[in-house]
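LOG
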Amino acid sequence: MKRIIVGSSCAVLAVLAGCTTSSVSDEELARQKAPIRPLVCPAPKTMALETATWVKLDGSVPVSVSCREAGAADWVARHWKSWFEKPVVPRAANASASPQGEGAYRLVVATNGITIAAERLSGVRYALQTLRQLAVAGRGTLTVDHYIAPCVTVEDRPAVSWRGLHFCWFPETTVQEVERFIRLAGALKFNYVVLETWGTFRSDLFPWLGWKDGAMTKPELRRLRGIAEDLGVTLIPQVNVFGHASFSRGCTGKHATLDFGRAYQPLFEPLMGWNWCLTNPEAKRVLKAYVAEIHEAFGNPPYVHLG
């Protein structure tokens, strides 16, 4: 073990000594330190990757965006600065030969230019998310100055049209965690996120149905919807209509409603009260109005998840 450690230390010292005596290009450093085959998830349908040559994402190489939908180049410009440090001004190009269909795109990174081609904005989003996964920070500096990406040609399109994730928003879940889940879903090219409320939704109609300090407020949902829509993600509410009437996990021994409003016991099955009493017309009335309220708070998406 001692010999291995000493050998590794000598190798590190040799590399450091070499760096102090000669300048090393981004391309050379990238070959030394960047992944041989950067991971893209989900894997594109086709990807021709050339890691021998790397391109700076700092505006020195022109960027063109081909898309039939207005605003695609502006979307790229806004996120490019956020994700790659340096601003660019993408050039809008002819979209006649762009890949057709929702989410379909072609990404080409070459030394003479970077091209994103897609019929729809969804494809432009996915192309830039792919480039984001391929990029690494420029080498040889203390802090990030710019990003670099390997020369690559990617052709991709979604295999299924409905690509969803399901997250539970528990009382102990922070708003920051939910935002991170949504951003991760967009980065991985999902287009739907189901948010299951466990008594965290602040209902104006029935405030006694949830925790008084629930973090799923209507203003917070508007903010999260804006983030999701910008990334091509639709948020869907889940309401437990048939079970989990406690809006909590049974193992906790808590009941979001009955802990604070024992007067509403008839809305739930006798004994432990973990299920709605669906033979009670009042329970049905409350649930219909509650579902309509939370659906509107989510921006009236095309779906509601009835848990």
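LOG (cont.) second protein
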Amino acid sequence: LRIRGERRREGVGVLWQMDTQGDKLPLTADILGRMDMGRVFKDHGAVVNSLDFSKDGSLMVSSGEDQSIRLYNCETGKMEKACFCKKYGCDKVSFTHHNNTVVAASSNNWDYTLRYLSLYDNSYLRFFKGHRDKVTSLSMSPLNDSFMSASLDSTARLWDLRTNPCQALIHLPSGYNAVGFDPSGEVLGVASSGARCIKLFDSKNLDQGPFDTFFLDCPAVEITQIKFSNDGHAILLVTNQPLCLLVDAYSGKTLGEITDYSNSTGAMIEASFTPDGKHVLVGGDDGTIKIFSRETVQLVGTLTGHVGPVTALKMNPAYLMMGSACENVVMWIPSEDSGGGASSTSS
């Protein structure tokens, strides 16, 4: 990450912003381990099920079981807007390429429509119908206005924000399935819990089937997320057990198993790569965030403060900031205290 030489105090305390004229600051384990709770938001009042950052890092959005979507300004550290989806609920919220629009799944048990929502005036721009069961995964293409969804109805579907009909359909084994684009947008990864495999597709030719399939040597678990590192070389698989798998994106070889974190309750925790791809952040059902080295797969740091399972966890793509959530949403920033440690403030 490139940062400005000066540190800014705007609401959340210390914000280190990317600057192409600045010097490079490596995201070391020491810096990550000294992240502090810069701001805690207690507006949701129920479990937060997802969060996302805009492509330029200026905004963060969260969705919760209170049937609301909330928008935060990452520069000022303030919540800017709340949008309510009382009829359908909301889950898997994801920014499009425009900072004022998101795509989200329903969180109720009777409607499985995906919705394209304007945060500017809280209006629905488009509905995407086709799934017949709960949507388990949602991924926006970094290349264009298309996005993928996976569902418990044993399908993954390709959509385009500009039109309602499904653009392509992939049939999958029954069970939990997850989808994710690589950083180029050229490759789509589909992780199947039922088949215990990863299928890689050309995102522009899904009808031709996968060009590669990696079978996983792991126990029978529900794979809840699939994520590519920013260099495209590694794949992270998150499960509903205390197990995350690191897989080589080219050979399918298992690079390591991350197990040194808590998820004895089978919570839907989230894990993510750091923007430089050198570390993996993993939430736990004990409220901790564990930091692992991608190269050694060893635990190198722990952040504490959440009062419940860390159900959402991502690094800001442009700022030295992390977002996480349990029932509350937290913005993490570098600590001013060189003595290190996470804030003792409870979220």
